[in-house]
Amino acid sequence: MKKQIFLYFLILFLGLRNESSAQSAEEQNVSKSIDRLVVAMIAADREMLNPLLSDALHYGHSSGLVQDKSGFVDEVVSKSPLSYISIDREKEVIHLSKKTATVSHILTIKGKNPAGDPVNIRIGNMMVWEKEKSGWKLLARQAYKL
Predict the structure, then answer these.
(1) Quick one: which of 11, 53, 105, 121 has the most CB atoms within 10 Å?
(2) Which domains does the chain have, with CATH numbers?
């Protein structure tokens, strides 16, 4: 009997733990927007990128370069200085406050430079997403060296 009670509480505890760490529906929507951004960057597709980005975008690179929306989109589409092969996210944390989401994660990026040489990057990243009528849009992003 004690064993059954212990198992019951163990299952209950694990279930509650999973519920508390589960993402809310809105956090999932933000995560899906990031997924779409990653796909658009790898595809280097202007039509996929534009609807995900705020017109007031402030895109900061770990090098210190800061771009607006058109500068960022032009760079991704031109595949220079980097053509993206994969962008993997880890340790992602999403916080919501009304119509704003902050996201922090570690990015592992694989790509090629214009000469075709492999490029591997591992950086920290902080994003600010803003909910608009058409969905979540990236308002700001700042990468930092690890």
Answers:
(1) 53
(2) 23-145 (3.10.450.50)
